[in-house]
Amino acid sequence: MVTNTSARLVKAWSLLVALATANALLVGLAPGFVPPFYLSSIVIVLSLLKARIVILDFLGLRAGPALLRWTLLAWPMLLAAATIAKIAFLHVHAGG
Amino acid sequence: MHREMEALETAAADTDDFLVWVLVLSELAAFGILIAAFLLAAVRDPESFALARLHLSPGLATANTLLLLTSGWQAAMAARRHATVRQQRRALVFAALLGFVFTIIKLVEFNSEMRFAASASFNAFFELYFIITGFHVIHVVFGAMVLLLVAWRPGNSNIALITALWHMIDLIWIVMFPIIYLV
């Protein structure tokens, strides 16, 4: 059982919904204004923030074992780094 | 490396749910490999991947993200230390129902995308897309059914186990969504 309070979970869920909405708005409205490389990087960072909230608040690892917390946090961070590397590679390859 | 593994085992043992975390980490590794394969394939054939992505429905996927986040919130509410059995049951059932709605939306999405999968130029994209998202939706269906089973027979250890797995499913979707649909 996790020691989270109802209020903390509501706050975490609200933040997640706000981040998901910001993501949708960015993808829907920003392409004409923000260069694709930066837009993609922002979208990846937003997903990283959502992943962090799920791990720390929903899984209750904010106060959990540090090694377990960092092992789980490493997974989205590695994939985010790989995705940004892919975006940068394609950006350079396209002469951007 | 050996010392790190020992520390991880000790940390997990402290929380008395070592096998849950082993399962979570092995699932994350499996999905990590699939997503890495998707990224590599996208680097090899960026034009075809960009074109194929135009046939996806990011709007439906965004709706699914909100559903899964809300479902995860309900699962976390069920796993609170001081939740009553009634609160646990209600939260678990709600989490499961949202999981089933996620599945229905995903199937609607699959149905509209199936006709593009036959195209030779989009083959690599859609093969990986259906493998990754299909594997994920199977996890959602299975997880939602177990959530209902646990709601029927709630017990603290069972709730801790299924909610940890449910959050892992949530986490995988959060990470795969922008990689597959957006960037």
UniProtKB/TrEMBL annotation, chain A:
Its main location: membrane. It comes from the Bacteria. Keywords: Cell membrane, Membrane, Transmembrane, Transmembrane helix. It is found in: Cell membrane. One of its GO terms (cellular component) is plasma membrane. The keyword Hydrolase does not apply. Pfam families: COX4_pro (PF03626). It is a multi-pass membrane protein. The chain crosses the membrane at residues 12-31, 37-60, 72-94. This is Cytochrome C oxidase subunit IV. It comes from Phyllobacterium brassicacearum.
